[in-house]
Amino acid sequence: MTDNQNPLSPHLQIYRWHISSLLSITHRISGVINLFSLILIFSWLLVLSLGENNYESFLLVINSFIGNFFLIGFTWSMSFHLLSGIRHLIWDFGYGFEIKTANISGIIVIISSLILTVIFWLMGRGLI
Amino acid sequence: MKETRKWIFHRISAVILAPLFVWFYFAFISLSTKNYQEAIYFFENSLVRILAIVLFFVAFFHAKISLNEIFDDYIHDPKIKYVANILSLILSIVVPVIVLILLIYKI
Hints:
Strand content of chain B: under 5%
Number of domains of chain A: 1
Largest interface: A-B, 36 and 34 residues
CATH topology of chain A: 3 helical TM bundles of succinate and fumarate reductases
Radius of gyration of chain A: 19 Å
Mean pLDDT of chain A: 92
Order of helices and strands of chain B: HHHH
CATH architecture of chain B: Up-down Bundle
Oligomer: heterodimer
Number of strands of chain B: 0
Number of helices of chain B: 4
Distance between the termini of chain A: 58 Å
Number of domains of chain B: 1
Radius of gyration of chain B: 16 Å
CATH class of chain A: Mainly Alpha
Strand content of chain A: under 5%
CATH superfamily of chain A: Fumarate reductase/succinate dehydrogenase, transmembrane subunit
Helix content of chain A: over 70%
Largest sheet of chain B: none
Low-confidence stretches of chain B: none
Shape of chain A: extended
């Protein structure tokens, strides 16, 4: 393997990104991020079992600026993975494989994930 | 697990997970601005506890299958891949079991 001088494929420095490949890797990344948000929710339950004082400190951390930054990021990651997952399920039933359809559904996933994040966050925080 | 069965279980777990995760994450976001008593009150409902336990088992099962697939694609050393798969298996069992114990005995 070491003396193999063939270029790697995809060669990332000259790789032309398409919506399909961008969404494919983002689906994986958002899935891994969701695992971290699940671990955060797990620690929420853990802290809840440790009593009121610890719980209040935990709330202070997640309601800080950085805490909110992560929570909004996690909200987007969940929205994206959910919508992109629905797109994958539709593919699994054999629909939407045409290049044009796949590109359009990809754009719909990106835009709706952002809209869903805003709606979810505002509703979750009781702002609407 | 056979690859076809893995594929089917992955999809089934995704369908179960979609509503559960959205619901629970929403509860987490809205309760994070409220106090301890309200969070305890939320978990007093046994349906909430059961669904939360199901969520953690299904979510970590889904994550385990997905992680194995990611490791298959990006880790080339079979030994490291083996260790990574074992670690993801342990994580996917330990966390849901702790949640089960917490929600039945502690909270």
